[in-house]
Amino acid sequence: MSWLVTAGLLVVLLQTAGAQEPRKKDLESQRLDLLIELAEAKRDGSRIEGSLTRLNQGKFDAASDKTLDHLKLQLEAAEKTLSGLRAQKPSDETKRGILAAEARVTALTDKVRLAQKNLGAYFRKELSDTRIEEKQLKSKLRQIQAEIDRPAPPPAPIIVEVPSALTVPQPVIVLPPAPPPKTQPVKPPEPQGTRVSPKDSLEYTWIPPGTLKMGCVPNDHRCEKDEYPAHEVTFKTGFWITNTEVTAGAYVFQFNHQPPKTSTNPKWKLTELPVTKVKWREAEDYCEWAGGRLPTEAEWEYAARGGAKDDRIYPWGDAFNADRCNSTARRKRRDVYPEATPVRMFPANGWGLFGMIGNVREWILDVYTPDGYSDKEPPADPRAAAPGKDRVVRGGSFGDGDKQLRTSHRDHLPPERVDNQTGFRCVIPEAQFPAK
User: Fold this and answer.
1) E strand segments, 288-337
2) pLDDT confidence of 346, banded at 50, 70, 90?
3) What integer pLDDT is reported at residue 66 of this predicted model?
């Protein structure tokens, strides 16, 4: 009988160890992810702390803060002018000039102090948030480590019926362990890559679920008030988005609608140019016809960043690059295409999307509100549905410069506006993508 008991115990021990192994691996994976996040938070904290120290020492330049640098140059010029006037022969005109120069120096000095104060407050807030994040990550790490170190529970005892010498021998039965709980059905894999819609013949790229830090990034000091506060939003499901702006060919010849002609495409023969001179309602009508809708502001910014995990001012990095988008910086090189260019003329972003920045700005589903990033905004799949007249446009156009082409920059237009700098692209939810 002893070998049967031993075999039963061995089966249970092996099954218990097997059940513990996936749990340990999962916890270890979580621990490594948290360590990476903690390292990034510490790096951000050190960078912000360094910026604050330099600011307190009066060491700022165009690389750290362009507003302060510009004010500093103005102040130096004003002080130089004042010094020159004081060195001149006294006269009524010179005295008036000195008074005016002194007033300008005083005003610029106050502006520099105010700019330093505001930037210092911003850095201190960012540093405080980063330290809080570090504490939270350390607390989670301690909890995960405690789970990893916790010993496995002892196996349940096995009851084996051993026949007595006074009874009729009965077969010895080793009871098998209880069956594992029923698992949830396996979720089908997320779609990937690019599909061509049979409806409008445009390519749509899959954007996976994920999280976005939306709004002004920490190292960008040219943000407007409506880009604050930076906040985290989550996309529970992915979506398909046209990997270019909707083209003239898709709108005019597939959708069979003709907006007003443009000077650069008077007969709509250039089918790969983005369609423009469409109202917000006309853009939304097209997207509904194609099986979707205009993108929300959060969806647009999530897609525009191209999956980048760091805080970039532009989809490609922190420095503006005139060779990566159509902007005012290309005026001298506009020969064949004096305004908008074909939709794939510039490099794609990390998710293979073309023209998210520059060329033509894009209509967005959301109503524009200057406080659209308030705490009232939902943290998952947000949409600004507050009352308002204007609609959001994003991405900037060939008529904009580097400040307006930052990924977080927001703009807005009346929905009836028609111009040659505004186009659009569409979003189709996963379950609604047209079948072939």
Assistant:
1) none
2) very high
3) 60
Contact in structure between 141 and 38 (CB atoms under 8 Å): yes
Give the bridge partners for 233, in sequence order.
212
Q: Which of 138-147, 353-362, 390-399 has the lowest mean pLDDT?
A: 138-147
Give the domain ranges of the chain: 2-149, 193-436
CA atoms within 13 A on the CB side of 303: 32
DSSP, collapsed to helix, strand or coil, labels residue 207 as strand
Rounded Cα distance between 379 and 370, Å, is 18
For 294-326, what is each residue's pLDDT tens digit? Answer: 999 999 999 999 999 889 999 999 999 999 999
Q: How far apart are CA 149 and CA 393, in angstroms?
A: 52
Torsions phi, psi for 230 (to 5 deg): -65, 140
Terminal CA-to-CA distance of the chain, rounded, Å? Answer: 66
Query: Is pLDDT at 420 greater than 80 in this prediction?
Result: yes
CA–CA–CA angle 197, 357, 327 (5° rounding): 125
Backbone angles phi, psi at 392, to 5 degrees: -70, 140
Strand bridging mode 422-423 / 361-367: parallel
Q: Is the dihedral of CA 367, 369, 371, 376 positive or negative?
A: negative
Phi, psi of 214 (to 5 degrees): -90, 140
Region of residue 141 (phi > 0: left; psi between -120 and 50: alpha; otherwise: beta):
alpha
The closest of 428, 392, 427 to 412, measured between CA atoms, is 392
Q: What is the CATH number of domain 193-436?
A: 3.90.1580.10
In the 8-state DSSP scheme, what is residue 114?
Answer: H
Considering the domain 2-149, what is its CATH architecture?
Orthogonal Bundle (1.10)
Question: How many Å apart are CA 167 and CA 107, to the nearest integer?
Answer: 108
Whole-number Å distance between alpha carbons of 247 and 255: 11
Q: What's the whole-model pTM score?
A: 0.58
Contacts of 200 (CB under 8 A, 6+ apart): 246, 250, 254, 255, 289, 290
Residue partners of 247: CB distance under 8 A and separation at least 6: 202, 271, 272, 273, 274, 275, 343
